[in-house]
Amino acid sequence: MNSEKPGDWQGPVFILADDDKPAADRIASLLYPGTYFIVPVTNPRHVLSYAKRMKPNAIFMAEPISFPKGGAQVLLRRLIDEVGRPVIVLVELWSPELAARWKGMGAADCLPHPTRSDQRLDLVRSKMQELAISTLPGSRFASAEGN
Questions:
Q1: Where are the beta strands (DSSP E) in 45-92?
Q2: 1 falls within a domain
Q3: 93 and 108 share one domain
Q4: How confident is the model at residue 82 (pLDDT cuts 50, 70, 90)?
Q5: Which of 78, 73, 90 is nearest to 28 (CA)?
Q6: C-alpha dist (Å) from residue 98 to 42, 70, 112
Q7: Tens digits of per-residue pLDDT, 11-49?
Q8: What does the DSSP 8-state code read for residue 115?
Q9: What is the CATH number of the domain that holds 22?
């Protein structure tokens, strides 16, 4: 995806750890080219080695992620202990309580997973369309409402 090598890049370098390859590729394509060098790592077992070798500005880690013996919580702890770079957790179902929990475990921040916003919008659009159709004159819902 990125033609430059991190050592040649003058801007910030970020690792994007996400075992959902299409999601990782989409995020990387939205953020690069431009200001950032994004390194998508889609095999969770390689995240630590990439982070140690590349010394990124930060690691963005999707949750859930398939990391042995504990998933994202174990990977977070190891990244903090062994790499010492900020880790931002990307969650699918964000809430203030969940963000506080991840921060309490040592994450620098917890944000909604960015590719999930389009899926959420698509669900809302589908529901709006469903409701719009169901309220057309002659539909079951419209006649029950007296329209």
A1: 58-63, 87-91
A2: no
A3: yes
A4: very high
A5: 90
A6: 23, 17, 10
A7: 678 898 998 898 888 777 766 655 667 889 988 889 999
A8: T
A9: 3.40.50.2300
